[in-house]
């Protein structure tokens, strides 16, 4: 079988199971380039929701073009036979737990860095379970620590209902594909930020994506080692809880929110919330119209800074606003990790300079 037909075969087989597919570059694993009309380098960005290209069957806007339509998928691979199928997590109702095995050293503050949002020194777990830094070499080690802490006696039930699709990546990492929990909106949570599930363990959900199981990039093949795409199990309850903790906008940060004026009446907090939401909506539109990658990053930073100045007047949490800003950044074409970093740091800067709304 040629490379070309293998990619298309995988894409069609997964699409038939309801997995939303779109083409990735085999080298960078990023989406294929937009058409000229949708190219943010030469054209003002526009609303993805109303972009004619996607309706016309183009692959513009990456994950946002993902589809289960076999005719569209076949046409894409006819045009780009070497493309690698990517899977849009949220539309496919999947969650990808992405366990990394290489990269940076364990940070010095490993009592708080191993499981972001959890201070191991305050947990009912013996120091022996985590004190030895050399015991943590990959994301598997940190995820197993989380399982030990939150997963009870049998953290990884082996019955069919809990069976993930397990994939070994070319770099030796592991992908666990699970069915997404119902009734909750998830976002990605990356190991490079405070929001990871565990050190070197990312959550890909919502508008984030992963390389399709079985697909081959220039780095190698994403090999299925257990489970089947046709029957993906759900996460054990403790893991669902932890994924919601780090990857849902309903999540409330464990670090105390910056103090809000106690005199703020509900009415004025509502007014502040409406005002900030209006600012974010306007910023969203402006960012899509902004030309050039650097320009968009600067505009996102300015928007996040302004939001940071206003958040104390609202009923929104930092997490709500960072999620919203990150989504705005991603929708305008900024890399997801970059968007979240900009949102988080600029929001924090803005919070140091609280603004007031003039009546
Ligand atoms: Zn477009
Ligand atoms: Zn286009």
TrEMBL record:
CDD domains: Prim_Pol (cd04859)
Protein name: Bifunctional DNA primase/polymerase
A Pfam family of this chain: Prim-Pol
Organism placement in taxonomy: Bacteria, Bacillati, Actinomycetota, Actinomycetes, Catenulisporales
Positions of the DNA primase/polymerase bifunctional N-terminal domain: 11-239
SMART domains in alphabetical order: Prim-Pol (SM00943)
